[in-house]
Amino acid sequence: MYYWTNELWRLAYLVGGLGALGWVLDAPGWGLAGGLGLFVFIHLRHLRELYVWLTYHPGREPPVGSGVWGDLFDRLYKYQKTQRMTQERLRDVIRRVQESSEAMRDSVVMLDSRGDLEWWNTAAERMLGFQTRHDRGQHITNLLRDPRFVDYFYARDYREPLTLPSPIRDDLVLQFQITLYGDDERLVMARDITRLHRLEQMRRDFVANVSHELRTPLTVLAGYLETYTEYADQLPPRWRRGLSQMQEQTTRMQNLVNDLLLLSRLETDHQTERSTPVAIDDLLESVRRDTVALSEGRHSVHVEIEDPRRLSGVEQELRSAVSNLAFNAVRYTPEDSTITLRWRAWQEGAALEVEDDGEGIDPVHIPRLTERFYRVDKGRSAATGGTGLGLAIVKHVLLRHDARLEIDSNPGEGALFRCVFPAERLIEADPALADAQRA
Ligand code: ADP
Predict the structure, then answer these.
(1) Ligand 1: which residue has its CA nearest to atom 27?
(2) 328 CA distance to ligand 1 middle (Å)
(3) Domains (ranges, CATH) in the chain?
(4) Which of 48, 82, 285, 342 lies at 20 to 30 Å from 12 by C-alpha?
(5) pLDDT tens for residues 254-299?
(6) What burial class does residue 21 get, using C-beta atoms within 10 Å of its C-beta: 0-12 exposed, 13-18 middle, 19+ buried?
(7) Is 376 in the pocket of ligand 1 (CB under 6 A)?
(8) Residue 271 has what pLDDT?
């Protein structure tokens, strides 16, 4: 506002002064026109100086200006200076981030919102084979082509890391983790976990080997114990008790060894192509018979088939999972309890449920139930013949079938174990019916 009045005064002086001079010289029109012309000339000259400064020498000091122009030049100069300082600071931050990422042993790759490569450190060149000259601007899935990585990248669910071999060195095992930030940009980190992987492999092999080695001596022991038991009536009572306890414990060890071997096979054997369409009604019926045999008539066991679809999977593994759940229901529920084995549609897929109306489980234990040897009540599990591996086996079988385990239970309200299978694993019972539904 202040400068408007100032400028108006300047105009008034020029037009008034030159107008008065013109009037004295008897040419008032020329005087007024000259005043206006001078005013316009002054502004045009400043405009030109501004243009030259901003276009050709933006780094230099601003030109000297009078009136509103001087103030405008100062303000622009100050604005430019703060902008430059902010830019400098940002550049410094980026440089430091890049330097620290460069010093990291893990691969760091920055992607733009389309998934194209923007920047990466030297570890990424070493582990992933990226080349500075060729690969900038390439889409990440052009360079990391493993279908598991491509699925992981597009699924956008990065809560769990992904373990894969390096694309350039088979002996290197990498763990990928993606983080979304900013405007849909992504940071891909890859850690070399080869050593950890090897140790894990060694642990698995060790458990599998020990279990395998224990099998033969245990069979021999169990065989002799069985023979001796036949002559138990010829032995003193103290020996008889000892003999029956030895037999009980040998059976327990045999069960443990079998479960350990099954678990290590489930962990190491990655073959999934053995999947066949499994008729769940037949499977549940056969598990029901085994469960009734284990229960010796103390529980009532039912099968409910609410979904006609079959499941694509490995029958032996599925049977082992459902049997574990059903046998647990027998072992951890009192006499006269009801156990239901159910197959039903659930969310987008289907669910295999084992439900009982026994004592239930305190929810604090539920998150840890599938851990190996985790027991709510140690003494009870041992007394009922549990190995502590049942639910760990269930979890692994489900993992191999792209399924998950949900446990719903409260003390005194029974327990529901639900294995949820995705729609892709389901096969319509009758192709004609499926066609009709699709139409
Ligand atoms: P275990 O061999 O001890 O049964 P599992 O892994 O099969 O090992 O089960 C882990 C624990 O979960 C058991 O020790 C038991 O306390 C609890 N559990 C499993 N099923 C049931 C059930 N149907 N009702 C109550 N508790 C259960």
Answers:
(1) 332
(2) 6
(3) 2-92 (no CATH), 104-192 (3.30.450.20), 198-268 (1.10.287.130), 276-438 (3.30.565.10)
(4) 48
(5) 999 999 999 998 988 776 558 899 999 999 999 999 999 999 999 9
(6) middle
(7) yes
(8) 62
